[in-house]
Amino acid sequence: MPIITEGMQLLVFILVYPFLWVISILPHRLFYGFSDIIFFIVYHIVRYRRKVVVNNLKLVFPQKDEKEIHRIEKAFYKHMCDMFLEMVKTMNLSKEDVKKKYHVTNIELLRELEKKRSILIVCAHYANWEWNVSINNYINAKGYGVYQKIGNHYFDNFIKKVRARWNTTLITQQQTVKTVVRNLREEVPSVYGMVSDQSPQAHKAQYWAEFMGIKVPVFNGAETMARKLGLAVVFLKVSKVKRGYYQAEFTTITENGKETQENEITDTFLRLTEQQIKERPEYYLWTHRRWKHRNKKPAHFAKT
Question: pTM for this structure?
């Protein structure tokens, strides 16, 4: 396996960064026109993971005919290209601009909860989860986003600086519990955001549950942390209003994780995510192999 040296990482950053910067400052019409070009390449020429997307859609929507599956598939790819370019747009998006593009309908719910205890916000790979961190512009508590560290540390450091402009500190999964415990001990009001619909390895899963009608392994780390440390848990639903504009709404799952039953938080999250997907399925991340372990359930989970 080739070793990526420090110099190579820097060279990639130097070469790619100007291109991304130019994309980020394009006006609305040119920006989404460029997205249309990317869609044509990704969908018609590269055909990126099209078989995975179609298989996922047929698996969870067996009642839909081929025409509807194709409509959702094509709409998904158009949205996916928009969304990933909108991640680039973040480079030069001010607080004022993002508030126009990403509107929170009931921020009062979060503001009231943050007065009582630390909050864990859970969401899915739906709509534009990248801009979810802009919620920290509306609250007084210290905001954290749990993220996957980027291999190129020049880009990783750059992403951290960009998010810092939106009052967000990025932390890895490995840093999360330690950060939460420290802030609780020091009585620092905090809000943590976590995308919670990933697929764990089957042999490492602690819980199996139905998601879109199919039994799959489920990450329950968010619930474990909330129940042990007494965090409030809030579900974040994001809707795409029109191209480049989103609307966010909070639903309280629990005001105190210690007062919930085992798997209650996880099951509620799954049901809310399902509801969101069924309303507008084209905005979910269908390239994700979410159901790949559906036939690998270990024997000791047979009765669950």
Answer: 0.92
Write out the chain's pLDDT in tens, 304 residues.
Answer: 455 677 888 888 898 999 999 999 999 999 999 999 999 999 999 999 999 999 999 999 999 999 999 999 999 999 999 999 999 999 999 888 999 999 999 999 999 999 999 999 999 999 999 899 999 989 999 999 999 888 888 888 888 888 888 889 999 999 999 999 999 999 999 999 999 998 887 777 889 999 999 999 999 999 999 999 999 999 999 999 999 999 999 999 999 999 999 999 999 999 999 999 999 999 999 999 889 988 776 665 555 5
For the chain, the domain total comes to 1
* Cα 81 → chain centroid: 15
Q: Is 105 a member of any domain? A: yes
Rg, Å, the chain Cα set: 20
Q: Answer yes or no: are the C-beta atoms of 102 and 248 closer than 8 Å.
A: yes
As a whole number of angstroms, the distance between CA 135 and CA 253 comes to: 18
Residue 1 lies in a domain: no
For residue 257, being part of any structural domain is answered with: yes
**Counting beta carbons within 10 angstroms of the beta carbon of residue 155, is it exposed (0 to 12), middle (13 to 18) or buried (19 or more)?**
middle
Strands 119-123 and 190-195: parallel
Q: What domain range includes position 122?
A: 6-301
DSSP string, 42-62: IIIII-TTHHHHHHHHHHH-T
* Contact present, 135 and 174 (Cβ < 8 Å): no
Residue 163 domain-assigned (yes or no): yes
Cβ neighbourhood burial of 206 (10 Å; 0-12, 13-18, 19+): middle
